[in-house]
Structure formats: structure tokens, C-alpha cells
Design brief:
The protein has about 140 residues and is mainly β. The protein has a single domain, classed as Jelly Rolls. Helix content is about 0%, strand content about 55%. The protein contains no helices and 13 strands. The strands form four sheets. Strands 3-4-5-12-7-10 form a six-stranded antiparallel beta sheet, with no helix packed on it. Strands 9-8-11 form a three-stranded antiparallel beta sheet, with no helix packed on it. A hairpin with a 2-residue loop joins strand 8 and strand 9. The protein is globular.
Length: about 140
């Protein structure tokens, strides 16, 4: 990683840095991974991009401040928004505003792969997990 300074601040250029991998799990085990393409750890303060791979339902959650855009790239799944479930297949884009309860899950015991763009950059303190967890 290289950091450049100039009169208007600094920027980062990331070269050949392996993304940070975060396991998604609960008391029943691992149900997916998050591959951080950009994150606060590499200097992205205003937005993050992550590739998410799910083989089980995500935990129902909301964010106090963060807006997320989900872009399905592979697999067939569903996305829960507020109290409705929608088809989530390649090409579908979903914008989730702050405060909206949401989660994704694959269909037919497969894998669901999607990109998540978060703004501001993801902060774990901004997440509220719904008591229903993964049972939706």
C-alpha cells in the first residue's frame, strides 16, 4: 500500500493487498464470509466495498447511519426488506437506507454472492441485530 500526500489531503493506492476475510457466524456456526475489497483498515473512510458469500441466511439487521447498496452477482436468493421478501438474483440492485431492517439468503442450499457498497464506511458499532436473528 502506498500513501500519497498533497495540498488537498492524501490518497491511497492499494497494490496486491489480499482482502481481509471476515467469517459470518452465530451460535449455529459459520453461514458466510465477507471479503473486504476496501475498508477503513486500508484508508477508505467514506465508503467500503465488500464481496459477500452466503450459504445460509444472514442475520436480520439495520444500520443507524450507513446506507448500503447490494448488487447480486451470482446465485439465486432472497432479500428481506422491512417486512417483505424479494427475489435477489444476478443483476438485481437494492439500496438499503439507514434504519431499514434487512438481510439476504441463498435459495436451494446454494451460495449467494453479492457486492455491498457501504457509505459511510462500515462500522460495527452502527449495526443493530434484530432479535429474530436468522429465522426469517
Amino acid at each position: 500500500m502506498t500513501k500519497f500526500n498533497n495540498d488537498s489531503g492524501y490518497c491511497y493506492i492499494i497494490l496486491r493487498v489480499k482482502p481481509n476475510i471476515i467469517e459470518l457466524n452465530d451460535d449455529k456456526g459459520i453461514f458466510g464470509i465477507v471479503e473486504e475489497i476496501t475498508s477503513r483498515a486500508v484508508g477508505a473512510e467514506r465508503a467500503n466495498i465488500a464481496k459477500i458469500i452466503l450459504w445460509g441466511p444472514d442475520i436480520l439487521h439495520a444500520h443507524k447511519e450507513t446506507e448500503e447498496t447490494y448488487i447480486c452477482v451470482k446465485g439465486e436468493g432472497e432479500i428481506f426488506l422491512i417486512d417483505q421478501i424479494f427475489e435477489f438474483i444476478p443483476g438485481v440492485r437494492v439500496i438499503v437506507r439507514p434504519g431499514i431492517l434487512h438481510a439476504a439468503r441463498p435459495k436451494n442450499c446454494g451460495k449467494l454472492v453479492f457486492l455491498c457498497v457501504s457509505s459511510p464506511a462500515f462500522n460495527p458499532k452502527d449495526v443493530y441485530n434484530d432479535p429474530r436473528g436468522r429465522a426469517w
